[in-house]
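Supplementary material to the annual report.
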Amino acid sequence: MAHSNKSVEDPEKEYNPVNYIPHSESHGTKEVWMGFWILLGLTLIDIAFYFIMPANMLRNSIFIVLGVVKAYYIVGTFMHLKYENNKLMLSIIIPIVFILWLIVLLLYEGDALSIME
Amino acid sequence: MSTTSHLETETHGHDDHHGHEHHKETFISKYVFSMDHKMISRQFLITGIIMGCIGVFMSILFRLQLAWPSESFGIIETFLGKWGKDGILDPNFYLALVTIHGTIMVFYVLTAGLSGTFSNLLIPLQIGARDMASPFMNMLSYWFFFLSSIVLISSFFVETGPASAGWTVYPPLSALEKAMPGSGLGMTLWLVAIILFIVSSLLGGINYISTVLNMRTKGMSMDRMPLTIWSFFFTAVLGLLSFPVLLGAGLFLIFDRSFGTSFYLSDIYLNGIGALDNVGGSPVLYQHLFWFLGHPEVYIILMPALGITSEVIANNARKPIFGYTAMVISLLGISFLSFIVWGHHMFITGMNPFLGTVFMFVTLIIAVPSAVKTFNYLATLWKGNIRFTPAMLFAIGLVSLFITGGLTGIYLGNAALDIQLHDTYFVVAHFHLVMGSASIFGMFAGIYHWYPKMFGKMMNNTLGYFHFWLTFISAYVVFFPMHFMGLAGVPRRYYEFTLVPEFGIWMDVNVVITIAAIVGGLAQVFFLYNFFVNIFKGEKATQNPWQSNSLEWTTPVEHIHGNWPGPLPVVYRGPYEYSVPGRELDYYPQNIPSDGEDDIHHTETVKVDEPTIETPTTEVDSSKVLFASFAKLFGLNRA
Amino acid sequence: MATTTVQETESIWKGGRSPFKVSYGKLMMWFFLLSDAFTFSSLLVFYGAARYSLADVWPLPDMVFNHFPLVGHYHLPLFFVSLMTFILIFSSVTMVLAVEAGHRNSHKEVGKYMLWTIIGGLAFLGCQAWEWSVFIGDGAKLYSNNFGLTADGKSYAEGLKVFGHYEWSEGLRTAGPAQFSSLFFLVTGFHGFHVFSGVVLNIIVYINVLFGTYERRGHYEMVEKVGLYWHFVDLVWVFVFTFFYLI
Amino acid sequence: MKQTQMKTFIKTGLMVLFFGFVYVAEPILELKTLNTELQEAALFGVGSDEFEPFKEATGAESLKSKIQWALYIAAGLLILVLAYVFDVASYAQKLTGRKIADANKINAWMLLIFLGVGMYFAAWEFVVHGPETKVYNSSSEHGVDYDNMFMITLIFTAIVFVATQVLLFVYSFMYKKSETRKATYYSHNNKLEVFWTIIPAIVLTILVLRGYAVWKNITYENPNSKNAQEIEVFAYQFGWTARYPGADNKFGAHSFNYISGTNSLGLAVESEVETFKEELKKDTSDYIAKINSIDTYLSELNAKVKDFKKLANFKGVEDTEKEIARVLNGEYKMDLELMLRRRTKQLERMALVEMNKEEYKATFNGSVHDDMITKEIVVLKNKPVKLKFRSRDIIHSAFLPDFRVQMNCVPGMNTEFTFVPTKSTDEIRKEKNNEEYNYYLYCNKICGQAHFNMKIKFVVVETETEYKTWIAAQKPAYPMQLPGSEKEEEINSPVENQVEESVVIIQSNNKKSI
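Predicted assembly:
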């Protein structure tokens, strides 16, 4: 935004936070492709585990862990969160705690429901 | 700003929106599809007041039934037609009234009418911004809310009546059309209305959050924000994170209702139909998802009221709010805890009782930050110089109601005690005091306090006093005796109690409650008159009628686009610097530079901003350590 | 603003600027996505609880999603959905490349990569449509399905080899829990709806790119915002893939 | 405030009152004409039943209600006058410049008075209504723990309540505005804040730990859970039934699939299930037949319309035309198909269970044949009882306020509550000085129009002999059929009876009120 940058530089002009667009730098395409290969690799590992291991709790936890790792790469690399201000990072990540709490309790509850039936 | 930049900004409107003083406005763009946050806040408020009148009126109708069961009331037939044949309320419609009263008051009045109004009005004004981050989305937020209200009200004109499964609409009752008339089209409309409402709250929420974070004026650091802004900020976060879960719950419910799925339904045999083909679902899961919203919703309602109270009490006691940091941390604590305690609404709903224990432990922790807030209010009053404007009276009323209602929460949060109290009048008393009346009082405090800002006119104090005293007394008379009814096991949502002698003994109490409710309802006439007539005929307001510190009073009385005619104000100190020693005036507006310090970038001199009467000690203050760790986490720095 | 980094971090909350160093639009998109993450979480958590409570009778996903277009009845679990995953991840990559090109203000490249992203999104939607139609053809309805296995069916399923031909005869399959198909339709449908709206947004942005709107504006932030949304859709798919197909 | 404004307010108020008066007065005039009508009716001998409910009742009742409204309006007028008087004072103050009434002072005093009066009435409530609340008057064993828990909480909260309310109002009064004083600048005191964070935390820890112990003992670690007398409580719209396991102390299996007109609890009684299956099959073929003969149905309806028109039965015409519309827009067919789907699914589910032949046979064991279905719950004093809850249609909540027992009844889920009753019905009657007093199990979860009337009598007997005599008087609902013997005819569905009963009560109730 041309005019807003001007206003930032010029202290005489009124500062306008709305138009504040930081200088966004390009991190190059290398990392992007890196992320792509990692995601692809993780998916392939998923599939490998799927065919190698019998279905059990351990396999499921491996899948979930791999899912979280994939999420890390998508959010970190693709969505650029790794390079954002770490406060923004925190304010996005901290609320996820509530989801975890919901998951833990509802799985517990689902287990209890199955016993009751 | 140059003219070229104006032209540019107008071509891509979402990027810039202020400095449009020369912009021509038609009636439609000024009053109807307005993008100005002040107008939108007025729209929210007036819609909220109208919805509030409807909600209160409904409560009076069903209170008549409870006090004088099976007695004929002309008014019931006049307003309800076939549902009130011969002036007697239909038992089905009694449930509908209860349901819609709850829905309207919780969502439409206290969520949109309170937080929508004041977030819109105060966030830009108090942090020194020209408008919301995205005025367009702000406008959409209002219109989704408006549409949602229309849909909800329209459900009254459906042949089978509006939703009547209680405001929590637990399936299977709400999911089975044949279970009760209200679960037909009325229920569908309810769900549609709520989904529209969720969209509205989402659009509003992201706007409030990014405005507070991004658009504070120079010097308005996070620890210089008025507590109102903090409370709106946390409220928006709560809404942002909890409403989507209601959307999920609602989606499942819609599918169960209309497409034959069995998410919440299992093993049901209905009279006249036989066994349904739904197996394997669980209604308890709905309750989990609903209360994941429902509990934060309680604080979505209450926190803006608490924020408004902080501002009003500090301003009228002419004292700094006691323990600003503690107030912010307790708001944060309440917000955080409110997400993890929802299960205390379902101790005996068939939830695993072990989870009941978990929820009981986390629930009662909430009492701690609430207690801190209360004590801080008391300490703020101590040695103040209190001016009893109607706003101040309502704020004091809020604190009183908050104490009374909050303490009964300790009973209900205790799983063991909840066995007897669940779904009785004790619960009704508890939440009507702590989030119903208290939040309404907060809303009134806000309206009386910021009316000069909203409409540029003054409200009449005398009418305000009458309004307050009648409302305050009737609030207590209505809800205090209900505790005792609840303890005796009188269930809520009963159409009448005369059939059992056990509950019949409370009939005289019911009569008293109803009369008080009617008086309380009539008392609102004072307010409505005061509010609507003074918009046109009121005395013209001065720029800063309450001698307040915060930035909204530095704007001109006449509303202009962009709020400040000149450059944005610069902030030099916190919002609660009242009666600063050594100053002649008992207030110290945030935008006035103090002597010898006009460059805010000098971190060393900022210390002058916070004159404390405490002598600096070397020992480590534990609360400061706590704050420091928070500060580190969120980059908050108290210089 | 020639200040050192230390001073900068000290003053970022002082107002007059964005503490996160992002524009309000991007911030709003982030918070919207956070909110949407809660919507999807509520759906997936419900799925978890329902599945947990019906663990004994829950159909085996690899006995259901084992089709591949044009090859007929061969037991190919996970192959098709892996392809879908690949398409979505790839479209995510092209989206990042578009954003990156935007940083360099490279008008042509942004257009090129946006186009690829749109094609990827449409391909994914096509795949999903195919999968739904096969699923429905197999006997899945919103309120019922026949993916439960009888005792015979279980031993038949255990004997099935990957790449092996299979045929479901009478008596092998029986009614499965209705939640299996209804949750599949609801969650993948909701995700598909997100993909669809993402494609629509992408198309709008692409047209704007072609018209040079962002070039005139001086920055390609809009591409970045839509990109965030697009990656979020990808993120959700990772979990849908994990919970609906793998586990 | 400008005086003109006040005048407008008063004017508006008077207008409203005037209309209110007209509204009130109008029916009084009407009533006179009604009376003459009635007199005429009496004179000319028109049957009284034609006039009776509609005129007399509404007239008198609505008059009564109008009088009530008149009272409210009068109250409103009083308020208005007060407002006016109050405002004249403030206006006069402005005019003369002398302080006639200082609003600030008045409000400060009012707050203080409110505190006094409010505290008095709060105490009054405790004294007058407290005894009615059943605290320390529970009829169950865990009720004592409950009451202790309650008392502890009450003491803590009462102290905090009084202290904070007194401080709030007294501070407000003490520090009311004064021109001579300036507020003390006092923004925080960290020690104080830490202090009043820790104190509530400690108090709440005590409460939580105690509450945890009580809750645990009542629910998931109830020591009585193993050796309790089991009774199944079955909820439906709108009533309850109880099932006793009989001599073998074992409940027969049940399924919602088996619920039929004669088997309202869905018990696994083989003969019942077999006949019901036949019924269902017949139903399905009926639905199929109906779906296939929609055209004939339509022509039948058309013929009916003609007949009704001939008879000038407009109600009949209207209803039939509605039905025709339903057929034409496909709703009729959709409904039939839905019902067909439901029945087919039900049969399918039953067949699924039957697939495992041995297990299926095992469900029809003998334990169901001595199960007794009763319309009241009778338990023995001081003996642990475990209520097992089941719901037929929607969520209900079984609530026994006297025993501090409450648990939701959720369809598709089994919930239970174990407790020990310690006070027999006779004892509570004596205590209450009321020979009519009964324990009831109420419904406490919103469940539809007769929710408020959904209850079942709960009797606690004193001695074992009483209990045994009562049990002996109960007959098994589905006694074991000896081969060749006829099935007992008398056994009707208790559930259906009860449903009718509650409906009847509503109707009679409405009649009474009209």
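The beta strands of chain C are 148-149, 173-174.
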